[in-house]
Design brief:
Chain B: Keywords: Kinase, Membrane, Phosphoprotein, Transferase, Transmembrane, Transmembrane helix. The structure holds two protein chains of two kinds. By secondary structure, chain A is α/β, with parallel strands linked by helices. Chain A is built from twelve helices and 15 strands. Classes of the chains: A alpha/beta, B alpha+beta.
């Protein structure tokens, strides 16, 4: 009897020891988002939703997770310094950035430490780095179809309004290159806003030029009440290239988007019922968490090389539609939609005007110039902007 | 479901304990073994399937990357060509002369002389069937192979839905080099187009790779003959067409659903069936080709190792089962043999044998049981002897009480009669004395005395009513003789009990014995009662004939006495496997239920006094029991009585 009890106890101890979950080494992820400027609202999904999803994924895998937050709204030098500190400690996974200016700021540090940035938002492209993986659309995917669609549907005289940023300047250059080539279109004016105080003067200029179409890329201020409707009061159709954002006020804005509320997309229906409101960055943030979880499950998080290899050619049906990361990490194959904002309740506030018939190829350096030319243009801009990729003033969140 | 099954299994009555032991031992051992084998096989299959699926997924991803890379090269080549200043010049020049000049005009021929060599050379080196320059209006202004496409307008209705027109329009829409796949066109299923831009958009250059180049482009042949690879291109109608095949997938089919899911972005690993086999498939979207690659492997071949493992496990389980049955049979035999021996000995005890003993060598519980059995048998022997003695004494007491009671009545009468007769004797003595004195007085001549004595005698006779005394004495003697005769009869009947074991058994014909018993009945009885005889025992029966005759006579006597006029007695006899059965049934008055239990008691009778002693059935019962049999009674008042004698057949019967 005694021997039996001892045997059972020993067996029990052995079984418990065998099945006791082994505590794995903690994974670390850096999340970069604007936490303090007026763009914090734009990046709120990166700051709030993404950590939750990552933690859920880690909990499912019994993995400890250490999330480090970096505020992108701080001087570039300080941001890079903080990032370098974290990267030097062995962290090689970075997620976030709400715009390409943030990405461009981080690239040198990422290159030095061979860390990989998973970037969920859209950009103008023109990024020559293997360390950045775009999940959002690049200019080749949304800009040229938009210009073609504008030419066919909205008019031929175009006014461009952007912000003082590398993105807007490069998009303007791409547009002007195409418009110059296409003699049927003409670019009447290009405006680059530095801060919100210029809004009224921009509206006045729009009224003065009376263009057919205003191509809008001053995304920092798209949510400013009255801005879009003010531009529309000039009689022009406003077409927004702010692919991740919607205007706040009532308007008849046209915009190109990486997401359309497609009721025939089961993933869109599922995610919408789970999360409620969806937008491209939120959807891509959710996909980022899924990609991270898959890599965790398949043990592909041990090095940036493994992580990149995992990302290469990863595909999924996401709420935006079919998406596949390009095997050369040029971006993500994905569909693009042109939508008109509508006040008609029957259309749920938006009407689909055009969509790509298949996932579009991401081309990091599109247009007629060579990559080195684009990098040269970017360097000139950066130098002229005093070492910033965006000189527009976004202000603090309280302002 | 399961509890019911096990409940029924538990309640199932096995024919032997050995079968039960063997069944449960086999079940309890084989169940975990089978479970382990099933789980192990399932796990192995899952692991193998996982490995195969992973490899196939990897193959699909590799194939997708390869195809994507090849397409990239083609697209990039076309992009570079489209940016060539030489091509831009050619485009400008051909566009300028197109429409305004004939193809055979000097201007056109000059342009051909200037550009065609280079463009035709490029087309040949690139393996193109044609290289087209198309202006912004859609006019084909140059064809390197001088094909019929020259001069055609791609925006014309003839080209609606054609890959050429699609490629032309997409190149201008996206302002980039594009590829258009059209699997339905087996001759030209890929078309490359790129916008030609100088300062202005000049037009589109279109490359049409030859089939051989296209074949290399979308080469999906696998090095592994067991792994098949194929490329499906999405069509506008939601179906897919496999490159190199004429037929599209059927809309709504399982394969089409899988391809659609993969095309929409999901990584698919699944099973599909066709006429040949069941396939494990892995699908990966190829957006560069607007299609899906599928890697498939014959499931039975891929999981052949599991099949082999399953066969081995089945054989192993079978062998284990056989070994288990053999061992179990031996073990259960060891366990049940002593029990069987015990059962046999219990049966012997039940049959009356007392000298039984089992082997008690074992040291386990069965040995303990055997020892206890032996002790019990020994104790039983002692107890039985005491019990027999006690029963004997009780029987004797009961019999003695009956005898005393039965003899006491006639003896009381006799005693009383003798007492009366003694008084009568005194009377007669006095009378004889008077007569004696009278005779002597007469003899002496003493007349006076004689007269006085005569007077006295007469007076005395009158006084004592001598006539009554005389009559009464006769009556008393008769009564006493009757009483003594009854006592004699009782004593004679009791002798039967003492002679039960004295006679020898002999084989007799039952029918003959019964017929003799019937023949001994008085003639008036045979007239009064109908006696039916149905004897179905032909072979001689071994018993003590005289005693059994008394039994039959007693039963028949009781039967006919219970009947009134038109009574009927039926005598039946038959045998079964273990006993002879002889039945006496009458349709007489029947016996009350309370009295049935007493009919075999000595001196119990329902007949009037003097008509029966009540020893017939008691004696019959004793005789039958002495033969190892028994008598059963069934009776219902007003309907009759049935007494059934059961005698064991000779081989089962212990010697009496």
């Amino acid at each position: 009897m005694k021997a039996t009890v001892i045997s059972v106890l020993v067996l029990t101890v052995l079984l418990i020891a065998w099945f006791w979950p082994v505590q794995k080494e903690a994974q670390s992820v850096i999340i970069v988002a604007d936490l303090s400027s007026q763009l914090a609202e734009r990046d709120r999904h990166l700051a709030t939703d993404l950590p939750v999803w990552l933690n859920e994924a880690a909990a499912q895998a019994h993995q400890r997770l250490n999330i480090l937050f970096l505020d992108s709204h701080q001087p570039a030098g300080k941001l890079v310094e903080q990032l370098e500190t974290h990267l030097a400690s062995g962290v090689h996974i970075v997620m976030g950035c709400g715009d390409s200016a943030c990405v461009r700021t981080l690239i040198p540090a990422l290159e030095r430490h061979k860390a990989v940035l998973l970037y969920p938002a859209s950009s103008e492209g023109l990024i020559d780095s293997d360390q950045v993986v775009h999940l959002g659309p690049v200019a080749s995917q949304y800009l040229f179809p938009s210009i073609s669609w504008i030419r066919h549907n909205l008019g031929r005289n175009i006014m461009f309004i952007g912000s003082e940023s590398a993105r807007s300047h490069m998009l303007a250059r791409l547009i002007s290159g195409q418009l110059n080539a296409d003699k049927q279109l003409s670019l009447i004016d290009r405006e680059f806003m530095r801060d919100s105080s210029e809004i009224s003067s921009i509206i006045d200029k729009a009224k003065y030029y009376k263009s057919d179409v205003i191509v809008f890329d001053a995304c920092e201020w798209i949510a400013v009440p009255g801005f879009i409707s003010g531009l529309e009061s000039s009689g022009a159709s406003v077409f927004s290239l702010c692919i991740d954002q919607r205007p706040a006020d009532e308007s008849s804005l046209y915009y190109v988007s990486g997401y359309y509320d497609n009721r025939h997309n089961p993933e869109n229906v599922r995610l919408k019922s789970l999360l409620g409101e969806l937008n491209p960055v939120r959807i891509n943030s959710h996909w980022m968490a899924q990609l991270w979880q898959q890599a965790l499950d398949s043990d592909h998080l041990n090095s940036s090389r493994q992580w990149k290899e995992h990302l290469r050619s990863s595909n999924a049906l996401i709420a935006s539609g079919p998406a596949q990361i390009d095997q050369h990490l040029e971006g993500t194959w994905r569909p693009v939609y042109i939508i008109k904002k509508s006040s008609d309740r029957l259309t749920d506030g938006e009407v689909l005007m055009w969509m790509s018939d298949q996932p579009l190829r991401p081309v990091m350096f599109p247009g007629l110039e060579a990559p080195s030319d684009w990098l040269h243009f970017l360097t000139i801009y950066w130098r002229n902007a005093g070492g910033e990729w965006r000189s527009a003033i976004t202000g603090s969140s309280s302002s | 479901m399961k509890p019911v099954f096990f409940s029924r299994l538990r309640q199932f009555e096995f024919q032997s304990m050995r079968a039960r032991l063997l069944f449960w031992m086999t079940l309890l051992v084989m169940l975990p073994v089978v479970l382990l084998v099933v789980i192990g096989l399932g796990y192995a299959e899952e692991q193998l399937r996982h490995r195969v699926t992973t490899e196939m997924r990897h193959s699909a991803a590799t194939l997708m990357k390869t195809l994507d890379g090849r397409v990239d090269v083609q697209i990039e080549d076309n992009r570079i060509l489209s940016r060539s200043p030489y091509l831009q010049q050619a485009m400008k020049a051909f566009s300028a002369v197109f429409g305004s000049r004939e193809i055979y005009s000097m201007e056109y021929q000059e342009l051909e002389d200037r550009y065609r060599n280079y463009l035709a050379y490029y087309a040949e080196k690139q393996g193109l069937t044609d290289l087209l320059l198309v202006n912004l209006d859609g006019d084909v202004v140059f064809s390197a192979s001088q094909s019929a496409l020259y001069g055609r307008n791609l925006l014309h209705g003839d080209f609606i839905g054609s890959p050429l027109r699609k490629a032309f329009e997409r190149a201008l829409w996206h302002m980039d080099s594009v590829i258009e796949i059209s699997p339905a066109d087996t001759e030209q299923y890929a078309t490359l187009a790129a916008p030609v831009v100088d300062r202005d958009i000049l037009g589109v250059v279109i490359q049409m790779p030859s089939v051989s180049i296209l074949g290399r482009l979308i080469e999906v042949e696998s090095n592994d003959s067991d792994v098949l690879q194929s490329l499906y291109i999405a069509s506008d109608d939601g179906t897919f067409q496999q490159i190199g095949q004429q037929l599209s997938t059927r809309s709504g089919s399982h394969l089409n659903r899988l391809l659609t899911s993969s095309y929409l972005g999901a990584d698919i690993s699944a099973e599909i069936n066709d006429d040949e086999a069941t396939w494990l498939v892995s699908l990966k979207p190829v957006p560069a080709l607007n299609g899906v690659v599928m890697v498939r492997q014959n499931k039975s071949k891929a999981l052949a190792a599991v099949r082999d493992l399953r066969i081995s496990a089945s054989i192993g389980s079978g062998v284990l089962m056989v070994v288990l049955l053999m061992v179990g049979r031996r073990v259960s035999g060891t366990l049940t043999r002593p029990l069987k021996e015990l059962a046999v000995n219990f049966e012997k005890i039940g049959n009356g044998q007392r000298q039984v003993r089992v082997d008690e060598d074992r040291r386990d519980e069965l040995g303990m049981l055997a020892r206890e059995f032996n002790r019990m048998a020994s104790s039983l022997r002692n107890t039985q002897a005491q019990l027999v003695q006690t029963e004997k004494m009780a029987s004797i007491g009961q019999l003695a009480a009956g005898v005393a009671h039965e003899i006491n009545n006639p003896m009381s009468v006799v005693t009383a009669n003798i007492d009366t007769m003694r008084q009568y004797t005194d009377v007669y003595i006095v009378l004889i004395d008077l007569y004696d004195r009278y005779i002597r007085a007469v003899t002496d001549g003493n007349t006076e005395d004689a007269e006085q004595l005569a007077e006295k005698i007469l007076q005395y006779q009158q006084q004592e009513d001598i006539q009554y005394v005389y009559d009464d004495m006769r009556s008393l003697v008769e009564e006493s003789l009757t009483g003594l005769g009854r006592v004699k009869h009782i004593v004679g009947s009791l002798r039967v009990f003492s002679e039960l074991d004295k006679a020898e058994e002999q084989a007799v014909d039952l029918n003959e014995v019964i017929q003799h018993v019937i023949a001994d009945l008085p003639a008036e009885v045979r007239q009064k009662v109908v006696i039916e005889v149905d004897i179905r025992i032909c072979e001689p029966i071994c018993f003590k004939a005289e005693q059994m005759r008394k039994v039959f006579a007693a039963l028949l006597d009781n039967a006919w006495r219970a009947c009134d006029e038109n009574g009927k007695v039926r005598i039946r006899a038959w045998s079964d496997e273990i006993q002879h059965l002889i039945e006496f049934q009458d349709n007489g008055a029947g016996i009350e239920e309370a009295r049935v239990a007493h009919i075999f008691n000595p001196f119990f009778t329902t007949r009037p006094v003097g008509e029966g002693l009540g020893l017939g059935l008691s004696v019959a019962h004793s005789i039958v029991e002495a033969h190892g049999g028994h008598i059963r009674v069934q009776s219902k008042v007003g309907q009759g009585t049935r007494l059934r004698i059961a005698l064991p057949r000779a081989k089962q019967r212990e010697p009496v």
